[in-house]
Design goal:
The chain has helices at 8-33, 44-97, 105-125, 229-243, 341-354, 411-464, 468-494, and strands at 140-148, 154-161, 183-185, 189-190, 195-202, 210-215, 218-223, 248-252, 257-262, 269-276, 282-288, 298-301, 306-310, 321-326, 329-334, 360-366, 373-379, 384-391. The protein is α+β, with helices and mostly antiparallel strands and 504 residues long. It folds into four domains: 8-34 and 471-503; 50-162 and 427-457, f41 fragment of flagellin, N-terminal domain; 180-190 and 306-397, no CATH class; 195-301, Immunoglobulin-like. Strands 3-13-17-16 form a four-stranded antiparallel beta sheet. Keywords: Bacterial flagellum, Cell projection, Cilium, Flagellum, Secreted. It is found in: Secreted; Bacterial flagellum. Its main location: secreted.
């Protein structure tokens, strides 16, 4: 049936043309924007995911900037610590040269002072945008990642860089909880009194009996001329003195005993006895170090130095300070982050050495069996009070504490400087190694973030970007369809005109 009121063909043609025009508009939008999903109405779920990922990409771009800033700061610190290591090595060369007594130590000291000033200059200048990693002890956190959990929550991750304090500051001794139980002094005073062993010649001696006595690994033998034990004792004493062992003397007491004395500061002296007899002669070490009996035939005379024995179990925290009193003066060291009892012992040694006390010498030792660290203090002068204590909550001493107190103008100063400069060099090497390790971590993370950003960007593109080849082909097809739709609509609109012929 034909109708002049309802043109069904025109309505169908118009609907088809509208659909074609809509698809053509979308295709043209894809071509102009380059996106298949340009807004939420195109595909709400894909659009939402893409926007979340785009925000992550923006965050990772900011993280790349943070890592670049951190890497630059670390580069400055690493260069500074390596330069300081080289300067300290130069100072060590000067200190070694000062060990000879026939050199101009005053000129060597002038060179050392100039190098110390250069070290301080390097440390003072080693900052990037105001941030220095070679002064202070607080850790520095560098933003390294954004971690998105499955529930959508986001947390920031950091790379923690340890500051390595290479300043020469003495720190500040605290007044917190007592640490006195972590350190024990071997005596209440340190003096120049020799330690001794009493060697007793007893029983009956016959002519040609041979008494042997070994001191510090050197053996002497005395052949008895008769039965007098006093002759044997005095004869052994004379032979020991004839050896010329530094710090070791022997005295015949005229009663069959002799006293072997040692003033060696940091070295024990072994003593052992024996005999080859025709009669019943006997030689025994009956008293060692003046304290008690020894019925065996050998032993050691202890070193003269007193010691500060440090705990083998207590942990060392930042701000823990230990103080050694020698005479009327006290010398302290305050530990920094991550330090140990070894560092405390070496720090206390540096503190005492820095005072330049003429008769006082120090060394640091570790017990091979127990692993216990100790500071040994020797006094070649009159007796001085000796004690140790400790407290928490101080401000840490700098890693190059004691550097500006190096003084090689005296024998004692030159000796002390040789050990202390090694400690300072090790501290600067540790700092350089720590910074180098952190640089490696940041470089690795920076590379990962760059690759991750590229991967995320590519993933977002695969979701929302338009396939331009497909869009181009679709555009051409839709343009043809549009033309056909227009023609179809035109034909449909002409259909009512044919009805007029029925009334002609």
């Amino acid at each position: 049936m034909s109708s002049i009121l309802t043109n069904n063909g025109a309505m169908v043609a118009l609907q088809t043309l509208n659909s074609i025009n809509s698809n053509l508009s979308k295709t043209q939008s894809m071509i102009s924007t380059g996106k298949d999903v340009a807004s939420a109405k195109d595909n709400s779920s894909v659009w939402a995911i893409s926007k979340v990922m785009e925000s992550d990409v923006a965050g990772f771009n900011a993280i790349s900037d943070s890592l670049a800033l951190g890497e630059s700061t670390l580069s400055v610190a690493a260069q500074a610590s390596e330069t300081v290591t080289d300067l300290l090595t130069n100072i060590k060369e000067k200190v070694v040269a000062s060990q000879e007594e026939n050199v101009d130590r005053a000129k060597i000291q002038t060179d050392i002072d100039a190098l110390v000033g250069q070290v301080k200059s390097v440390i003072g200048a080693a900052q990037f945008n105001g941030l220095s990693l070679v002064e202070g002890t607080d850790d520095v956190k560098i933003l390294s990642s954004l971690d998105r959990a499955s529930d959508g929550t986001v947390t920031a991750s950091d790379i923690t860089v340890n500051r390595m304090d290479l300043s020469t500051s003495a720190g500040t001794y605290g007044s917190g909880t007592s640490l006195a139980s972590n350190a024990t002094a071997s005596a209440a005073a340190v003096s120049n009194t020799a330690n001794t062993a009493i060697v007793t010649v007893g029983n009956t001696w016959a002519a040609n009996d041979v008494a042997t006595l070994s001191v510090a690994g050197i053996e002497v033998s005395f052949t008895a001329a008769g039965t007098a034990v006093a002759d044997v004792g005095d004869g052994l004493a004379g032979l020991i003195n004839g050896l010329g062992i530094e710090g070791v003397t022997a005295t015949g007491n005229g009663d069959g005993t002799l006293t072997v004395s040692s003033t060696k500061a940091f070295e024990g002296v072994s003593v052992s006895v024996g005999e080859t007899t025709a009669g019943d002669g006997d030689v025994l070490i009956t008293t060692l170090n003046g304290t008690g009996s020894l019925t065996a035939t050998s032993g050691d005379i202890d070193e003269r130095a007193e010691n500060i024995a440090l705990s083998t179990s207590a942990a060392v925290k930042e701000g823990d300070g230990y103080k050694v009193t020698v005479g009327g003066s006290s010398y302290n060291y305050v530990a920094g982050k991550g330090e140990s009892m070894e560092d405390v012992a070496k720090g206390l040694k540096t503190a005492i050495d820095s005072a330049g006390l003429a008769d006082i010498s120090t060394t640091v030792a570790k017990d091979a069996t127990t692993g216990q660290w100790s500071l040994k203090v020797d006094n070649a002068g009159s007796s001085l009070a000796f004690s140790v204590t400790g407290n928490e909550d101080g401000k840490a001493s700098g890693g190059l504490f004691g550097l500006d107190s190096i003084d090689v103008t005296s024998n004692s100063g030159a000796d002390a400087a040789l050990g202390n400069i090694e400690t300072l060099i090790n501290n600067s090497i540790d700092a350089a190694a720590s910074f180098g390790s952190a640089q490696g971590r940041i470089e690795t993370q920076s590379t990962f973030i760059s690759n991750l950003t590229d991967a995320l960007t590519s993933g977002i593109g695969s979701m929302v970007d338009a396939d331009m080849e497909e869009a181009s082909a679709k555009l051409q097809a839709l343009q043809v369809q549009q033309q056909l739709g227009v023609q179809s609509l035109s034909i449909a609109n002409q259909a009512p005109q044919s009805i007029l012929s029925l009334f002609g």
